[in-house]
Amino acid sequence: MLDINIEKKLSGFTLSFKQSVECQGITAILGVSGSGKSTLLNIINGLIKPDSGSIQLNGKTLVNIEQKQYITAQQRNIATVFQDALLFPHFNVLKNLRYGMKSIMEHRIDEIVDVLNIRRLLNRYPAMLSGGEKQRVAIGRALLSNPQLLLMDEPLSALDMPRKKELIRYIQFLAIEMKIPILYISHNINEVKALAQHVAIIDQGQLYRFDVTQKILEDDFLKGWI
Amino acid sequence: MILNDYEWQALYLSLKIAGAAIVFSLPLAILTAWVLARCRFVGKSLFDSIIHLPLVLPPVALGYLLLVTMGKHGVIGQWLYHYLGINISFNWKGAALASAVVAFPLVVRSIRLAIESIDIRLENVARTLGANQLRVFFTITLPLSLPGILMGIVLGFARCLGEFGATITFVSNIPGETRTIPLAMYTLLQVPNGEQSAMRLCIISIILALLALIASEQLNRWHKRKLAG
């Protein structure tokens, strides 16, 4: 269970998010650009400190400002896949994959390489990869760090439609077959519809509604938004 | 162009002093550049100004300050001599220190620009993958700022080779100890008919500077090729 109850003052509004999310399957955070989604993601992974509040993951406190508790990003064991992959340009694919790899994942590297279909890319450098290939490597790199939660910040937004469809299959596979809990951030309703079981709508930094995807899609607010 | 003993001595001392100055100041320059590029703290502007002071201060004033602080009777120099037996006034080590101080802001500036040009999100990704600050620095920041470090080394080395004012003030003009190419040229220009020999040293300086720049450019291209796959 991921329990979030934080506040962070941003330019123009205050991000205020209070919600408990099951750590299984894919939960989406849906909102327009500039609504505070990415800031929320970076507060969860430890790159940004909230002004107040706390976050617990499976009972463990990641941050509690009032009690001066703070676990740094490198100790949280929460991997993040960003919008533009952000592979290390001076490492080849294999070195990128191994960067955050935990020793217990050593025997799974072959499995993950095959699942993501990136074996033929292992000796290439990021500059030689297409957008879709980069994102698959970024996902593999994140998985090999053996995270207890995988955050994805609009990972498909820079890809064309065929690559998006291809990557959606991989993400579904991770959540269903590999049982990796995923928090998926997006502004795209179709992606959310295809992937998520639960959705939180965030508007101007405020949680508007959290529910199962089907009910969320029927919300009048969203119809107006489309 | 075959060099005579006088020229060999000046060339050898110049390379030795500039090399030592860069080798010993580079780790501190990288650390300073990283602090200026990545850290926020009270008094950063003042710290930045102090680092860049040697760039605008007259070299003779810098040499004088080194003399009163690092000389055998200076505030720090006295302590170094008394407790550690280290004497850096009027020898090549002092010349290396003077060169290092003069070149320091140039080296820091090049490296700082390189670090600032690195996408900070790459460092953030490394942190979310479990890397601590030290690992992020050595595996991401340092390799990606390599072109800036190389440029800093070349600029700093060239500045050390040309250093005159601070060196002559701090460690004087001692043949075989502190008489580098610029000081040797100056000495030749003080004696009748020394112009031709000074010109030979001038040509040596130009060749050295060109070789350094070409080497830097080659290394830079190699690094870019590597990043492009």
Automatic annotation (TrEMBL), chain A:
Coiled-coil intervals: none
Keywords: ATP-binding, Nucleotide-binding
SUPFAM superfamilies for the chain: P-loop containing nucleoside triphosphate hydrolases (SSF52540)
Pfam families: ABC_tran (PF00005)
Transmembrane segment boundaries: none
UniProt cross-references to InterPro entries, sorted A to Z: AAA+_ATPase (IPR003593), ABC_transporter-like_ATP-bd (IPR003439), ABC_transporter-like_CS (IPR017871), Molybdenum_import_ModC (IPR050334), P-loop_NTPase (IPR027417)
Domain (ABC transporter) ranges: 1-226
MF terms (GO), sorted A to Z: ATP binding
Superkingdom of origin: Bacteria
Protein's name in the database: ATP-binding cassette domain-containing protein
Originating organism: Frischella japonica
TrEMBL record, chain B:
Residue span, ABC transmembrane type-1 domain: 11-214
Bilayer topology annotation: Multi-pass membrane protein
Pfam families: BPD_transp_1 (PF00528)
Keyword Cell inner membrane included in the entry's annotation: yes
Keywords: Cell inner membrane, Cell membrane, Membrane, Molybdenum, Transmembrane, Transmembrane helix, Transport
Membrane-crossing segments per the record: 12-37, 49-70, 90-115, 136-158, 198-216
Localisation per UniProt entry: Cell inner membrane; Cell membrane
Subcellular location, principal: membrane
Domain of life of the native organism: Bacteria
SUPFAM superfamilies linked: MetI-like (SSF161098)
Family note: Belongs to the binding-protein-dependent transport system permease family. CysTW subfamily.
PANTHER family linked to this entry: MOLYBDENUM TRANSPORT SYSTEM PERMEASE PROTEIN MODB
Function according to Swiss-Prot or TrEMBL: Part of the binding-protein-dependent transport system for molybdenum; probably responsible for the translocation of the substrate across the membrane.
Database matches in NCBIfam families: modB_ABC (TIGR02141), PRK09421.1 (NF006939)
Protein name (record): Molybdenum transport system permease
